[in-house]
Automatic annotation (TrEMBL):
It holds the Pfam family HemN_C. It comes from Candidatus Brevifilum fermentans. One of its GO terms (cellular component) is cytoplasm. This is Heme chaperone HemW. Keywords: 4Fe-4S, Chaperone, Cytoplasm, Heme, Iron, Iron-sulfur, Metal-binding, Oxidoreductase, S-adenosyl-L-methionine. GO terms for molecular function: 4 iron, 4 sulfur cluster binding; coproporphyrinogen oxidase activity; metal ion binding. The gene is hemN.
């Protein structure tokens, strides 16, 4: 059994106008105590998962690049002592342009980070301001060059499109400038206007017009074709990896989620999935630190730590449904019928005959893979993927 480890870093300089993530601005003074708590939580997990083999570690946020190198040193000391990190373990850091320097990234590379994911969102200066980002287009260029010089050969760029003020030409320009940097990976999402965000408030007050759904679909189709021509494999609904004969650049950490494999979530608000139990940690930074300091007062044992506020046992049929819709997100591979049967001792057609036949009939899924034994979305299915997934939720 190989695990993936997600470590949440809930600190940001300011909240972006579209963001509803579990993150907090202006609390950087809590970083040292927070990191001590993370080390404690890793120690507790290592007590009940032993050995503790890891093949991916992902520091997500928030803005993990706000954490000083000395704090990461503490975390890596604990990881090297308490877990068994695979030789080719993917170790990713989410970073914001404007928060990194060449010495900082060089130190992180030396600590074993080997993948970096920059949240650039757009290469258009006006977009960055309207989204409430704290960085400029020049910061993006600097951060990218620093990362290359520091020795990162696996760089992801996170982008958002379908912005309320954005037309197709503006998105084409934004994407083409990002492609010119030649990263190894892209994650591209359509903007969701979430309640509680500034953008949502502006909508409510009539300061913005609703997004045009057809334009969103046009942007998605353009992105698929453009990145294909630029040499990127579209392997997941919102993710593209550079085609390369010698290296693979799919995000191994996220593959663990899409293949419905176990992962451990450490930190405030982190989620995990261990031994068919989903876990959720307390969300606030102070609450998290307090719970970890008072570990003796809380129940501890697989899969719970003092930070756990909820556990949900996933029954067999839900595991099978999750495995279907998550794997259908993998647009190249789809659902492997062999893998499904090995995992559950039942065939896909035994469990989901009705749904599969209906979706095949509608032309939304098709047979694929080397032995034609995988079920994957068709191009038409890709455009209405959420409706396909609903058949399994
Ligand atoms: S930097 Fe990322 S996590 Fe932080 S507020 Fe902006 S979008 Fe949210």
């Amino acid at each position: 059994m190989n695990y993936s480890l997600y470590i949440h870093i809930p600190f940001c300089i300011q909240r972006c106008h579209y963001c509803d993530f579990n993150t907090y601005a202006g609390k950087e003074s809590l970083i040292p105590d927070y990191v001590d708590s993370l080390v404690e939580e890793i120690r507790i997990v290592s007590e009940y998962i032993s050995p503790f083999p890891l093949h991916s570690i992902y520091f997500g946020g928030g803005t993990p690049s706000l954490v000083p190198v000395t704090e990461y040193q503490k975390l890596f000391n604990a990881l090297f002592e308490l877990t068994s990190i695979a030789e080719k373990c993917e170790i990713s850091l989410e970073a914001n342009p404007g928060t990194v320097s060449l010495p900082y990234l060089t130190s992180l590379r030396a600590l074993s980070f080997n993948r970096i994911s920059f949240g650039i969102q757009s290469t258009n200066a006006r977009d960055l301001i309207r989204l409430g980002r704290t960085h400029t287009v020049d910061d993006i260029l600097d951060a990218f060059v620093f990362a290359r010089r520091a020795g990162f050969h696996n760089i992801n760029l996170d982008m958002i499109n379908h912005l309320p003020w954005q037309d197709l030409t503006a998105w084409e320009n934004s994407l083409s400038r990002a492609v010119a940097l030649a990263p190894e990976h892209f994650s591209i999402y359509s903007l969701m206007i979430e309640p509680g965000t500034s953008l949502h408030d502006w909508y409510q007050r009539g300061l913005m017009t609703p997004q045009d759904e057809d334009l969103g679909a046009d942007m998605y189709e353009f992105t698929i074709d453009y990145l294909d021509r630029a040499g990127y494999e579209h392997y997941e609904i919102s993710n593209w990896a550079k085609r390369d004969e010698e290296n693979q650049f799919r995000c191994m950490h996220n593959m663990q989620y899409w293949l419905n494999q176990p992962y451990i979530g450490i930190g405030a608000g982190a989620h995990g999935y261990i031994n068919t139990i989903r876990t959720e940690n307390v969300s606030g930074i102070e609450n998290y630190i307090t719970r970890m300091r008072k570990r003796g007062e809380f129940r501890v044992g697989l899969p719970e730590t003092p930070a756990t506020i909820r556990t949900t046992k996933i029954d067999d049929i839900t595991q099978m449904k999750d495995s279907m819709w998550l794997a259908l997100r993998l647009v190249k591979d789809g659902v492997s019928l062999d893998r499904f049967e090995r995992s559950f001792g039942k065939s896909v057609l035994e469990v989901f005959k009705e749904q599969v036949e209906e979706l095949l009939h509608l032309g939304l899924i098709e047979w694929g893979g080397l032995k034609q034994s995988n079920l994957k979305l068709t191009r038409r299915g890709l455009m209405v993927a959420n409706q396909v997934f609903l058949r399994f939720i």
